[in-house]
Amino acid sequence: MKKKLTPYLFLAGPLALYFIWVIYPIFRTFIVSFTRWDGMTKPRFVGWENFVRLFNDRYFILSLLNNFKWMIGFVILSIPLGLLFAMLMDQKYPGHRVYKSLVYLPMALSFVVIGQIWSWVLEPSGGIVNTFLRWIGLENLAKPWLSDPRIVTYSLIWAALWRQVPYAMVLFLAGLQSVDREHVEAAIVDGANAFQRFWYVILPELRPAMVITITVNIIDSLRAFDIVFVMTRGGPYYSSSVMANYMYIQAFHNYRMGYGAAIAVIQFLITLGFILVYVLNVLKREERL
Amino acid sequence: MRKTLKATLFYVLCTLIVVLWMVPFVVAFFTAFKTMDEIFMLRNFWSPPKTWTFENFKVAWIEGRMGRYFINTTIVTAVSVAGTLFLSSLSAYALAWYEFKLRTVILMIFVSGMLIPFQMLLIPVYRFSVVTGLYDTLIGVILFHIAFQLGFCTFFLRNFMATIPSSLFDAARIDGAGAFKIYSKIIMPLVKPAVAALSILEFTWIWNDYLWSLILLQSDAKKTVTIGLTTLQGQWISSWNIIAAGALLAATVPVIVFLVFQRYFIQGLTLGSIKG
Amino acid sequence: MKRLLVLVLATIMVFVFAKERIVINSYMSDPAPRKALAELVQIFQQKYPEYEVVVNTFAHEDFKVLLRTWLASPKGTADVVTWFAGERMRYFAEMGLIVPVEEVFAGAKWEDYFPEAFRSTCSYKDKIYFIPQSWYWWGVYYRKSVFEKFGIKEPKTWDEFLQVCETLKKNGIVPITIGTKFPWTAAGWFDILNLRINGLDYHIALTAGEVPYTDAKLLKVFEYWRQIIDKGYLLPNHTAYEWQEAATFLFRGQAGMYYMGQFIKDVAPAEVKDDLDFFRFPIIDPAVAPYEETPIDGFMVPANAPNKKGAIVFLRFIASKEAQEKFAKDLGRLAANVAVAPPDAHAKKGLDMILASAGVAQFYDRDTNPEMAEVGMNAFIEFMQNPGKITDILKRLEAERKRIYGK
User: Is the sign of the CA dihedral A42, A48, A49, A55 positive or negative?
Assistant: First the structure.
């Protein structure tokens, strides 16, 4: 009897708070997505109109495609790099803490600041990237990073990675603490080389950290907003727009809260789709253990 | 011989990475010490200042009302982090260790709350705090942060807790320990590295939070550091040097927190010593 | 017993001497205006000690988002808010979210305080809802020394203007600088070209959504604009720069001209400030009277304000010559109050230019529906990057207009 109730007792407090501040507002958002509402007067029910409009909205489709670019960028770059940095800097040489702290620094800054700084770094004429490229003679590589519609999204992803990689690094550093040294040493005794040790011993034991990092990177890439908003506001003419950015403009600049809510719902469902598949997979594997 | 090779490799690689990584930061640093006129006339953003000026920091502190805002932000962040860590450890414990019907559903509820683009929550949450009188109070912001972070923290801690061998749990149960005792005396100490990492992340996020402090606070006296920073941004004019100075000031606290909590990554508090 | 008496007395004192509160939410986050407002508040509190005024300042973009939430909130938290005149203000008046402030003029008339020309932009359905505080103009800014160096005079007609551009370009100077990272600077060009070619009435009809974007008259605007683009007179990569960054080219003598608002002087470095001057945007069609952009800033009162009476008292103070003069002087702006003289020669030149104009407009994104403004301004940028695609762009804009205005 007591056993059955215990988990619910533990969950009562957190769940209550969560429902009030998070779940209920999410429901409100779902409802609003079926209305036309300017945030001030009474909302008007319009059925699927917002969603239909979304799929014919070229700027929304563009935002969606950009989000996928972000996702690919984050997953194939921030995870391996984060892991690499973590493994590299976790070696306990004197000064390793200094290195870690310095790489961590971008995370201590707010997104607004990061966006501002990278705008300066990527400035076409006075920024350090182009100045450096010109200095070493690679002038034709000195592109207008933020004003060329074809490359602007990649520049933004780059700026975001500056912070995303240390983030992954912190998560992996925590995970590395759970790796059993004895297992690693046993592998050395068994004659495994560095790569084999990494692949067969360390990596499996990093699973909790890996799950979190992958999940977080997928979510963050689909949810990207601040960097885009601060650096280009989705410009030039929507070429760097992402879903969250487009939604913000629709809801808070154009006062189309219903349309904005519809975008949020789509964004939510897409993210949920990815995460559900991934997390359920992980859970299944855990059950087998 | 091999050892020194490894050591040199370490230092070379690490230094290379750090140098690359610090470039944007150095840009911000230099900008914080320049005068606005110099920035305008020089037209580049990377050279060291011709005249180093501390004026920007002074202005950022005073105009950005940093003294007051540092206090507000510290209160909000510290209480929120403590609150969310405590509550999420409870829910993570329940989800990791107990088999019950709604387990997966509840876990997915926590996870899905992480996925919503938070801008959409703005209006419902704002309305709620106005109606309940929590608007323009620090406690309102704190409650929101605790609630909102529960999703991620529960997910995160649950994952780490799930790797603890169940033999420990069973042994304690057989010994007659109650659920709360097992939670506090056995499980929690083992997830310290995870909690430390989480507290760093949470502290950084909540410290740097902008949107919610903006929506849920009105009075100048109650605002947080990030809001104070943006009011340095004028209607027309961006005083980049002052903003850079203010940003550096604001960043000192999360960095210190990182330095302090980093120790928990270093200590050999591994599960391995128990597993053996 | 004695203690109780003291307590009762103290409580009574608190109530008797309690100050009434007036809460002002402002977007004047630049240091100079912020200081000026704070000082005005001080003066007000000295004059009216029964009031305690609290000013909350917000970053400009945030304010725009927050204003709506405040106005629509079931419980009001602000008594006075800063805002712009024009369509943006009328929008709220129409929804009953702000209240008329006619009592400010009790015993006097609008014309005793403010120019007749401003009246319509501050009212809705003949009631005054908005108290203007300051306004500024847009002009083509340049550095006197640069013009002198190449023997250039302020151009008066479009052809003269193109000549000036050519001269500058030949001498290695970018003729026109502009920063379009945030597209309102492009909207400025659109507005003034439209005003010059098609006149004020057409422009107002357009911003009210009554003119199709595929109209032949509108195409002319873009044809003229295209001349500047095709001849390469614009700053390269302008979409990467904010307006301020683009201004640095002007300050450093690398660019010749910038069509911009008067606040560009606020940000000019000391060594350049006095070298800056401006001229009226050139006349394109002599048959069309000169119109200019004069965005007006001021205050309004939310319908859910807790202390409406206090708000009116404060606004009466703001409208007074004394308050308007101080604000204008401190910032080098033009006061809305007719009794206040322009604070310096530069402001006088601006005022004269406006007085010599036949009418004024507010600015594209202040005069038009925000959603239309958003797609419109982005369309201008797209045009600037791809001038050949203008017919396509206009077709798309027209589809948006139909959808937004439902006409």
Answer: positive
DSSP state of C83: E
Whether pLDDT at B3 is above 70: yes
Task: Tell me which residue of B21, B252, B23 sits closest to A88, measured CA to CA.
Answer: B21
Q: Where in chain A is the domain with CATH 1.10.3720.10?
A: 68-255
β-strands C291-293, C359-361: how paired?
Answer: parallel
SS3 state at A66: helix
Beta strands in C116-193 (DSSP E): 123-124, 127-128, 131-135, 138-143, 174-176
pLDDT digits 0-9 by tens, C37-59: 999 999 999 999 999 999 999 88
In chain C, residues with a C-beta closer than 8 Å to the C-beta of A146 are 181, 239-240
Place of tokens 């971008």: A106
The per-residue pLDDT for range A214-262, each reduced to its tens digit, is 988 998 899 888 889 888 888 788 999 999 989 888 888 888 889 999 9
Q: Which chain C residue is nearest to residue A125, measuring alpha carbons?
A: C237
Pick from A267, A233, A204, A264: which is nearest to A68 by CA? A267
Q: Is a pLDDT exceeding 90 seen at residue C165?
A: yes
Check residue C22 and report its DSSP letter: E
In terms of CA atoms, which chain A residue is nearest residue B247?
A113
**What residues in A contact C183, CB-CB < 8 Å?**
235
| CA separation for the pair B263, A17 (Å, rounded) | 32
**Cα–Cα distance measured from residue C163 to residue C171, given in angstroms and rounded to the nearest whole number:** 13
From the list C164, C134, C166, C162, the residue with the least C-alpha distance to C148 is: C164
CATH 1.10.10.10, domain B61-272, yes or no:
no
Q: A79-89 vs B2-32: helix axis angle to the nearest 10?
A: 120
Residue A235 has its nearest CB partner, among C64, C239, C245, at C239
Q: Do C66 and B232 touch (CB under 8 A)?
A: no
Gyration radius from chain B CA atoms: 23
Pairing of strands C98-99, C127-128: unpaired
ipTM of the complex: 0.79
Q: Do residues C228 and C220 make contact, with C-beta atoms less than 8 angstroms apart? A: no
CB C148 within 8 A of CB C359: no
In degrees and rounded to multiples of 5, residue B210 shows phi and psi of -120, -50
Closest partner residue to A144 among C65, C182, C240, by Cβ? C240
Alpha helices in chain A (DSSP H): 2-18, 24-32, 49-55, 58-73, 79-89, 96-108, 111-121, 128-135, 152-177, 181-189, 194-197, 203-205, 207-223, 226-231, 243-248, 257-288
- With CB atoms and an 8 Å threshold, state whether B162 touches A180: no
| pLDDT surpassing 80 at residue C329 | yes
Nearest beta carbon to residue B91 from set A11, A108, A126: A11
pLDDT digits (tens, 9 = 90+) for B82-103: 999 999 999 998 888 888 888 8
Residue C297 per-residue DSSP state: E
Residue A200 to residues A172, A189, A204, C258, Cα–Cα distance (Å): 17, 14, 7, 64
Residue A111 touches chain B, beta carbons under 8 Å: yes
CB C373 within 8 A of CB C400: no
Fold that domain A68-255 belongs to in CATH: MetI-like fold (1.10.3720)
Token reading at C133: 């505080």
- In whole angstroms, what is the distance from residue C237 CA to residue C179 CA? 9
Spatial separation of the C-alpha atoms in residues B31 and B238, rounded to whole Å: 13
Work out whether strand C296-302 and strand C131-135 pair parallel, antiparallel, or are unpaired: antiparallel
Length of chain B equals 276
